[in-house]
């Protein structure tokens, strides 16, 4: 292509020389010089244009090369970061955690195998006539070991009508600094001598569901007032409100509880419902649905009075439970009755599902030490502090958030 351009320049210079010779009457030498000058000027201009094009192509190539080098540098930096991250990974700790889990699993499997072997040995050594005797024997009635309340239901109704029901708070601390974690809302009845009757002294155990609903509604009302006023004062607290199937089994009460929490969503995160283990085992689908809705609103649950930790932690966490309460004395003296895990491992295992263990009924400093050594950092009991009155500034204006539970005649 460039050769054709030069041929065209030569032809144009020759034409200029011929035109100057014949048209302008130049001498042959003058015509030749004119043609030569024109050709040289054209060649110089052509070379300049070609040089500019070459420089532009070179600059573009250098720019592309620079971008490629920048991309390679970024890729190298990312690769270097990944290599450094792999170098910094502490595989030993992870392997130790896996080894610990495998060890615990092996212990559980061995205990199960030993138990099955004992059962098989017992079956082989039992005479064949024993099953028939067992079949013919009537089932034994389950013994109720819990004492009956000393205050009858009629007196409890009268106390409610006379508004002698009060709510005190009992602290739950967090170890090792013993900072307050939350407070149990404890319903109590004022007596004539200025003393207070505790919950076991008056709470109905058979029947009286309407009264139980009224007491739990009163506690929820007090909890909302205290939580709202504490939040307004800039000192939010966590309150545990008692809840039982007496309230959960009643459709109107379920609706009222959900409406009360919905109307006070700002302090829903400060409330947790404490539910007994027996009530939790008997929950119906409708009652579980209510607990799930409350969890979506921000309210947590606490499993109170747990007699065993052989439960599905994932299922409890899915229902909204945040902690499990166990008797500190029983757990420290008879850990095998609560769990097959080692006492130092069960708290960490529960934390994997977002559940904390709370030791209740702590009676001395030694029990606090034992709980902390086993990884249980929440504790409650007489050694820490008993139920006491709430500050008066947190108890004002209850009517603004009153929770009314429909009353029904007892069957």
Summarize this structure briefly.
With 411 residues, this protein is of the alpha/beta class. It has helices at residues 2-23, 28-88, 91-125, 129-136, 153-161, 199-202, 209-232, 245-248, 251-263, 277-281, 285-296, 313-319, 328-333, 343-351, 365-373; strands at 165-174, 179-190, 196-197, 239-243, 271-276, 300-306, 321-327, 356-360, 378-379. The chain folds into 3 domains: 2-85; 91-136; 153-401, EAL domain (TIM Barrel, Alpha-Beta Barrel), CATH 3.20.20.450.
Describe the structure.
Strands 1-2-4-5-6-7-8-9 form an 8-stranded mixed β-barrel, surrounded by 6 helices. The chain starts with a helix and ends in a 32-residue tail after the last strand. The longest helix has about 60 residues, at about 30-90. The model is unreliable at about 125-145 and about 400-410 (pLDDT under 50). α1 runs antiparallel to α2. α12 links the parallel β6 and β7. It has 15 helices and 9 strands. It folds into 3 domains: about 1-85; about 90-135; about 155-400, TIM Barrel. By secondary structure, the chain is an alpha/beta fold. It comes from Arsenicitalea aurantiaca. It holds the Pfam family EAL. This is EAL domain-containing protein.
